[in-house]
Input
Amino acid sequence: MSAMAIVTPGFRGRRGGAEVKLPPGQYLAEDFPVLSAGPTPRIRTDRWEFLITTETGQKHTWSWADLLALPSQTPTVDIHCVTKWSKLRTNWQGVSLDTLMEDVESAADYALVHSYGGYTTNLPLEDLLDGQAWVVYQYDGDDLHPEHGGPARLLVPHLYFWKSAKWIHGIELLLEDEPGFWETVGYHNYGDPWLEQRYRGD
Ligand SMILES: Nc1nc2c(c(=O)[nH]1)N[C@H]1C(S)=C(S)[C@@H](COP(=O)(O)O)O[C@H]1N2
Ligand SMILES: [Mo]
Output
């Protein structure tokens, strides 16, 4: 064996003259694939609600009007699906989790995200904070299409896209980590695309 290790850097390609760098094993998607584990739930915005539940059982709830009344941001971010497509510089509009967490008192270290339809996904609470996550309701200047998670989805672009729960309903804050839907059946618990944490043991 050669003493020199062969490292696999992220794929480098050219797009519009500018060099882009993708996480290892990813390819560039030009379209916007739809990946859903079940049927698309249709949630009327007049019945929509979002709640954050703390480890002590305290509930903070927002109606659709409440969400739209909060200051919003327009993140432009790269997204990376575990099935290997990436999409660069996607444009969203939504509310930062920092804003939603402002009045929430919690000693929790973990979050379990719940979607309409039953999907769940888990992540450390700190990965939702400090400008890293949003509840988004617009994509590319239009209302978020139901297939892509409308009326509102979570956006956590620094982790594989399965963590970005579509049709978000609530976030449960927990003292102990609890695996979500894909994490329970063998996906990586954390899912850092730059470390290629696709499956348990990666
Ligand atoms: N509620 C819910 N959220 C979900 C999923 C899902 O099946 N249900 N799939 C996840 C996966 S695996 C990916 S890659 C992205 C896909 O989002 P898109 O369909 O908008 O591309 O949503 C994530 N969020
Ligand atoms: Mo995915």
The chain has one domain: 22-29+47-195. Confidence is low (pLDDT under 50) at residues 1-9. Residues 32-37, 81, 115, 117, 119, 148-149, 161-162, 164-167 surround MTE (ligand 1) (CB under 6 Å). The chain has three helices and 13 strands.
